[in-house]
Design goal:
two-stranded antiparallel sheet, 271 residues
Length: 271
């Protein structure tokens, strides 16, 4: 809904449903679509897939997500388009949660410190996701691995900080619904942390010994973490059911022109 205020400002109300769809559901659905497209239309690529750089003799019927969204075409271009649509709404989650936790914040320096670090990790998660999408595994493996680490570490810290702030801000005590949401967050953080740590073990194990089961375990954990990420942020739909974001478009300030220096300068006598 768009409205015009008296001072000429154009304001647009953005519904929470739109933010959840674009900022939470879109990347998960887009990623799973790329994977499904590969299995349906490019199954020969799956059957012939090997990790040629590290372990050329090891075949895997479940390649990592990085290949489906960053290497194979046309999935790669579809995923980049998803990222183009996803990034702006994702920033709204930072605004929503920071404002909600600040409004519920007790007069505690430690609580506000957690909000501060939570804001930083929200930004770093988005940066890591964009870097993983743009810098694919074939472009530079080390940089891609660092970007993946930034994304997964930031996501786990976001789950941790969100759960802590939800509890110590007193939000879970306001209704039974928020108590259930908090318990879901705790469960997702614990299980998501286990999945994340498993990727830090399974992939180095595969690189060191070329064990197919380790590579398969890494891919399964990646596939699950994609869904975890989307669902965790989807919880905001129930946390802010009647929330609306107002986006304002303001008129540019009028330019102030400075007087030009006169071309003729009158010389005054010294005495």
């Amino acid at each position: 809904m768009t409205a015009m205020t008296n001072d000429g400002t154009v304001e647009r109300m953005v519904k929470m449903r739109f933010i959840v769809c674009m900022g939470a559901l879109l990347p998960g659905i887009g990623c799973y679509f790329c994977i499904a497209y590969t299995y349906i239309f490019q199954f020969d690529v799956i059957m012939n897939f090997t990790q040629s750089d590290q372990c050329p003799g090891v075949h895997s019927i479940l390649p990592p997500v990085s290949y489906a969204i960053g290497i194979w075409e046309p999935q790669r271009y579809f995923w980049l388009f998803v990222m183009f649509l996803h990034c702006p709404p994702r920033i709204f989650f930072l605004i929503l949660y920071r404002r909600a936790f600040r409004n519920a914040a007790p007069k505690s320096l430690a609580y506000r410190r957690v909000i501060y670090f939570y804001t930083k990790t929200m930004w770093s998660e988005l940066v890591g996701l964009v870097a993983v999408s743009v810098l694919d595994i074939k472009c530079n493996f080390v940089i891609h691995a660092i970007a993946y680490s930034i994304w997964i570490i930031s996501f786990n810290f976001n789950m941790l900080f969100n759960t802590i702030l939800h509890h110590f801000g007193g939000i879970r005590e306001t209704s039974q619904k928020y108590e259930v949401i908090w318990r879901i967050k705790v469960f997702m953080f614990v299980t998501g942390l286990i999945l994340s740590l498993s990727t830090g073990v399974s992939y180095p194990l595969f690189l060191a010994y070329c064990i197919p089961q380790a590579y398969l375990a890494f891919s399964v954990a990646e596939y699950l973490l994609v869904g975890y990420n989307s669902f965790f942020y989807c919880l905001s739909y129930w946390e802010f059911p009647r929330c609306r974001l107002t986006l304002g478009v303001f008129d540019a300030p009028k330019k102030v022109r400075c007087a030009t220096v006169p071309s003729t300068i009158v010389k005054l006598p010294l005495s």
